[in-house]
Design brief:
Length: about 190
């Protein structure tokens, strides 16, 4: 029982640290497609996923030592949630890299663009996603060319970091396209019935 109490205490510390670390971006939507067994919904704000993790930890803390199977199941789920969220959060640019004023301005512009995009009808939104994908592909190719031309290792590493960020953005764009295409196919099949 003492081991369980110590483990639960450690879990709460990890969750609290994660919440504090991503407090500046807690309202930012994660455009990541999670396994339904891990999180109940996709494309929600960071805060939503942190709350699901906290809820899972609270469920574990309410279990008795006799609830071995349920404890094992929820522990595995909590571990999967924590790993999936930290992986997804690693794609978010850390706000510390920019000044608070600049980050807030860029964040507000991105959020405004995102809201405008979300208000478009699905087919128009899909066209915009494909335009964004094309722009990201061109940016990625340009960054690769720059990296090949670069002389210093430091510059190559800096460009590689930019390439990694662009690749992650490209992957999120592909995920959004996939979800939207699935939705449009579903709607089309529904209208045929």
């Amino acid at each position: 029982m003492q081991n369980l109490t110590a483990l639960l205490s450690r879990l709460h510390q990890l969750i609290t640290r994660l919440q504090q670390q991503y407090e500046p971006v807690k309202r930012e939507i994660l455009y990541t497609k999670f396994d339904p067994a891990v999180f109940s919904e996709n494309f929600q704000p960071v805060e939503f996923y942190l709350n699901e993790i906290r809820h899972c930890a609270e469920q574990i803390s309410r279990l008795t030592p006799e609830d071995v199977e349920q404890t094992a199941f929820l522990s595995e789920k909590l571990s999967a949630q924590y790993n999936a969220l930290t992986d997804a959060l690693s794609f978010i640019e850390k706000p510390q890299a920019k000044s608070a004023v600049n980050f807030k301005q860029v964040f507000n512009e991105r959020e405004t663009q995102r809201r405008q995009l979300e208000q478009l009808p699905p087919r128009e939104r899909l066209i915009k996603y494909y335009e964004a994908l094309q722009a990201l592909n061109e940016k990625l190719n340009g960054q690769k060319d720059l990296q090949k031309q670069s002389q210093s290792e430091t510059e190559k590493m800096r460009i590689q970091q930019q390439i990694d960020i662009t690749r992650r953005r490209r992957q999120r764009c592909l995920d959004a396209i996939e979800v939207l295409e699935e939705y449009l196919a579903f709607k089309q099949n529904q209208s045929k019935e």
